[in-house]
Write a structure and sequence with these properties.
ADH_Fe_CS, ADH_Fe_C, EC 1.1.1.202, oxidoreductase, binds fe (ii) ion, single chain, 2 domains, 10% strand, 16 helices, Rossmann fold, Dehydroquinate synthase-like, alpha domain, globular, 11 strands, binds nicotinamide-adenine-dinucleotide, metal ion binding, 452 residues, alpha/beta
Amino acid sequence: MDYTEQPNQRWGGGSVVLVDSVTRAGESLVVSRRRVAAETPTGPAPTPRDAATGRGHLQSGPETPRLAKFHVPEIVFGSGSLSEAAHAAARLGARRPLLVTDEGLLAAGWPQQLSRHLHDAGMRPAVWSGVTPNPKDHEIAAGHECYRAERCDVLVAVGGGSVIDAAKGIALLAGNGGVITDFEGVDRMVNPIPPMVMVPATSGTGADVSQFCIVTDTLRNTKITILGRALVPDVSVVDPQLLTTMPDWLNAATGLDALTHGIEAYVSRAHNPLTDHHALQAISLVGGHLERTMDHPLEQESRVFMAQAALEAGLAFTNAILGAAHAMSHQVGGLLDLPHGVINGILLPHVVRFNAEPDPARFVPIAQALGFAEVSGGRCSDAMAEDAAEWAAEEVRRLADELGVPKGLAEIGVTEDDVAQLATMTMADACLSTNPREATRDDIEALFRQAL
Ligand SMILES: NC(=O)c1ccc[n+]([C@@H]2O[C@H](COP(=O)([O-])OP(=O)(O)OC[C@H]3O[C@@H](n4cnc5c(N)ncnc54)[C@H](O)[C@@H]3O)[C@@H](O)[C@H]2O)c1
Ligand SMILES: [Fe+2]
């Protein structure tokens, strides 16, 4: 097969699926949405208010998309599943996998365990651990150099989103050459890339199932988004045991990241009934279990629920894409090299209010998933939908307070002088195109000021 003719074909098999660009995902799914009334033989046409009840959000709702795509890697989930990553790599033909990780994970001991499993399965892994949080463009280049020098064949990563994104970046360069910042945007890679097995060590980013790769562009001090179907890993091995070594701040930050993924995916312009289900489930799981993991860090059950939350949030947002909170967060993260989930936790209540202002109905199921009880049966009025949306924004802030997240961006180092530049760069972020409410540059500036 001539891979150069198949832009999104991956080594390791699978069918060719052309990627929707973010814009196309946003436009085609939204523009093609139509009322089902004319084609519904029985019963009255659903009204927009039906959405406000939250009932039926898994099935029909008031509109149905003509086209819904849902991509997902093979997933192995369960405590003690780490060894499965070695079997997965072997199945993908690995002989000399590059095991990508970082210093924090090495201190926790998980890469050493995985390396032993790889050896036991007959492979000779090379280990590269040069990633730092918010992975930098030059780190990806160094990892790629190692991959080439060691003549590796498959990427295996164990770590948080930074390690997983670094592994994706290395795979991208292995197939396409060049420098990582050349690939900013949607579907910029043309050649196939090596197989990838991902083992997430945080309960947050969903990078192990997503088509995103987020890298810090150190020249422009921003985080660039690289998006493409080819970046969906082949296998994700989710072992909740790995979460027990996370420090508290990281558990809090990544849990808030998962919550932001669930909420932004649910209201995204590119959401569909397949993503809605996972988004609401993720929101509910974070609401029900994140605080407990902080109080009882070694308790397995709540870790399993948080691992599932992160996974389901990932499945939702990789297909529905995200919104303004992430578009803004990427700029702050690039400027200040701070934990992604903490920035999201600060921004999210403000973005929820902004998006709910013209259309609060979509936020009712979100509020319910977080525990808002007042509209559990029957329909709800516009006023009640507004109440539910405001309650959801306050609940996100309450959770952030409980987790010790700073109240505003100023506390983490953002100043009034940064706002204009942050807003300008937000307008160019791919995640903004699926935000449910059109946001002008002035809107984004105002949001940054509110969040200061
Ligand atoms: N690709 C995607 O789809 C996607 C989605 C959301 C976020 N992200 C990106 O992911 C990055 C954030 O990732 P993250 O929040 O998972 O954290 P991280 O990977 O940046 O890790 C933060 C620190 O925690 C340590 N650590 C991680 N897991 C640990 C564990 N189990 N035990 C002990 N220490 C551990 C690491 O060594 C590191 O020092 C950001 O760059 C963000 O932009 C990517
Ligand atoms: Fe995120």
